[in-house]
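for the recovery benchmark. tokens below, seq after
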């Protein structure tokens, strides 16, 4: 990679994209946190005004007594969960363990057997008091209640022929005039993260108004990774509305209204995904989500989804759903054929142009290498080597262009000696020299620009590949997170630049980038422009700040790529490119008749115009 003027332009574009991406994300996060803090302050002020201070013990006793009375009234003829102890029904298969509660007849929590959390326990999903799946039913002539508040005390289970097990939790009204009952059935299948959820109702025409089930799904995405802020940046809400997939990042908006049929709604928090599916579609609804204003909490986001489900107006009726609690694994999600995999970030938003590159190139090759190599660090190194081999023809072309530029050094030096400080005239004469010698000044720029989509493709890929989570390599304990070899806490200035740590793989990426700059600048013509001269050395400094918070898998890739670049430069320059042949070819090109391309004509016209303008400015000063 030769750092002539155009190569430098390529790196400037790359640096600008890096800076723009991280600056944009930081500004979005800061604005959202400020908005959340202000909303919390206003809410606290209103709550304090409405609730004057009372004796805490007396206030708690009154609250419990009133809650019990109100719950019995709302439950009507159904038993209320407030009056009975909670019972848990445990079920499991090869991939998870789930607990169903008699309070509401719903999942209490789900533990994933193959994934560890930050405390070395199992990853737990939907395990907070906020999490609920409920819907409104008519419990009496003038009373309604949420099923989450009812007691589903009757418990049954049955083993199915396909190896799955169905667990039933039921509640029944003691009102002899209605004889209504509700049964929630959960089917746990072998080696599957999807739970089938069926609602069976007797007296459905009385329990539901107008044949509509108003379903409420509350979900908390709790912290699973080392960095809360980085996990929030990679958390999204997705859905299929009117057969079209769409998604929202949680930091930009906080609600979405569904005015047409919805197949599923889900929350993906980087490596884990929870999805609610209606087998016959939801007719309409809305999802809202909020991010806690405090960075100390372990809650990534909380969402509340209200959805309508059409139910036949008849005595016995129900609705069928499915709930996915599992990893955000592209291949696994794709098998369900419901477009779940679209929410896996292989390239989204302004970087959606790299999704085909990841889907049809990076992912298949990564999986192929992973088939015979168990260590993910070595898989990344081999992937890097393969990528560099595939673009090696362009790399060779770049080095050949650099070698030609080096061969022209003596003549460029003569131009500088002849025209002195007249940079405009030197540029004009250099363009003529390049044309006569048959040298393409853009030859060294293409490989540098090609690295841009490759980098952003791998940036998305390494942020979403669940296999990298917890993968150890060298000093990194998790290739999906920064290798925080040096941690120094929150120090104001340092935290602003680096965060609370320094990544060693980031240091190796920066050092190898600096070595490339040193080697490449030694092989290119001298730059009289100080900015162009020192910019290649400044670029690694940008990497030092931008890469420090990135997954160590990505900085390891960049380190390997830089080492390969250094090796290729040395081998090609010293053992493949024949400099004598290059000089001979340049001389032969000079003897050929020259035709100017339109681009060359425009460049010369622009340079000539700039030269004339500069001369006029000098005359005016005189």
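predicted aa per position
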């Amino acid at each position: 990679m030769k750092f002539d003027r155009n190569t430098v332009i390529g790196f400037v574009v790359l640096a600008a994209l890096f800076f723009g991406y991280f600056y944009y994300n930081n500004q979005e996060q800061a604005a959202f946190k400020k908005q959340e803090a202000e909303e919390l302050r206003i809410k606290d002020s209103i709550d304090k005004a409405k609730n004057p201070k009372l004796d805490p013990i007396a206030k708690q006793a009154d609250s419990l007594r009133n809650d019990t009375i109100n719950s019995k009234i709302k439950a009507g003829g159904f038993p209320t969960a407030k009056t009975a102890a909670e019972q848990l029904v445990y079920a499991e298969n090869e991939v998870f363990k789930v607990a169903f509660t008699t309070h509401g007849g719903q999942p209490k929590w789900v533990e994933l057997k193959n994934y560890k959390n930050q405390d070395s326990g199992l990853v737990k999903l939907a395990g907070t008091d906020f999490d609920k799946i409920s819907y409104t039913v008519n419990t009496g002539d003038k009373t309604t209640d949420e099923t989450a508040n009812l007691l589903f005390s009757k418990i049954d289970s049955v083993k199915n022929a396909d190896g799955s097990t169905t667990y039933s939790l039921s509640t029944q009204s003691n009102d002899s005039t209605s004889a209504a009952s509700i049964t929630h059935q959960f089917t746990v299948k072998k080696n599957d993260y999807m739970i089938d959820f069926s609602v069976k109702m007797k007296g459905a025409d009385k329990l539901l108004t107008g044949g509509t089930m108003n379903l409420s799904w509350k979900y908390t995405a709790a912290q699973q990774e080392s960095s809360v802020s980085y996990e929030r940046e990679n958390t999204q809400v997705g859905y299929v509305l009117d057969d079209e997939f769409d998604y929202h990042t949680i930091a930009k908006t906080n609600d979405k209204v569904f005015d047409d049929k919805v197949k599923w709604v889900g929350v993906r928090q980087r490596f884990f995904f929870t999805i609610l599916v209606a087998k016959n579609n939801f007719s309409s609804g809305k999802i809202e989500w909020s991010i806690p204003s405090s960075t100390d909490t372990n809650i990534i986001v909380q969402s509340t989804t209200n959805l309508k489900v059409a139910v036949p107006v008849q005595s016995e009726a129900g609705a069928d759903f499915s709930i996915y609690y599992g990893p955000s694994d592209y291949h696994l999600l794709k098998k369900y054929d419901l477009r779940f995999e679209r929410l896996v970030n292989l390239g989204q938003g302004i970087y959606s142009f790299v999704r085909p590159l990841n889907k049809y190139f990076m992912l298949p090759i990564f999986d192929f290498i992973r088939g015979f190599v168990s260590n993910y660090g070595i898989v990344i190194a081999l992937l890097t080597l393969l990528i560099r081999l595939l673009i090696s023809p362009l790399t060779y072309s770049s080095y050949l262009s650099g070698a030609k530029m080096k061969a022209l050094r003596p003549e460029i030096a003569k131009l500088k000696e002849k025209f002195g400080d007249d940079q405009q005239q030197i540029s004009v004469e250099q363009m003529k020299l390049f044309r006569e010698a048959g040298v393409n000044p853009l030859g060294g720029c293409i490989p540098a620009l090609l690295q841009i989509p490759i980098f952003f493709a791998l940036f998305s890929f390494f942020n979403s590949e669940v296999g990298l989570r917890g993968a150890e390599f060298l000093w990194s304990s998790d290739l999906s997170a920064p290798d925080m070899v040096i941690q120094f806490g929150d120090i104001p200035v340092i935290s602003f630049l680096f965060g609370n740590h320094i990544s060693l793989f980031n240091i190796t990426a920066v050092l190898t980038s600096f070595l490339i700059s040193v080697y490449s600048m030694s092989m290119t013509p001298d730059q009289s422009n100080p900015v162009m001269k020192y910019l290649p050395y400044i670029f690694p400094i940008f990497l030092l700040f931008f890469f420090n918070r990135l997954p160590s898998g990505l900085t390891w890739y960049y380190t390997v790529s830089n080492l390969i670049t250094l090796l290729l430069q040395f081998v090609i320059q010293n053992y493949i490119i024949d400099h004598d042949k290059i000089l001979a070819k340049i001389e032969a090109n000079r003897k050929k008749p020259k035709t100017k391309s339109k681009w060359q004509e425009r460049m010369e016209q622009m340079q000539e115009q700039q030269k004339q303008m500069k001369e006029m400015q000098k005359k005016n000063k005189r």
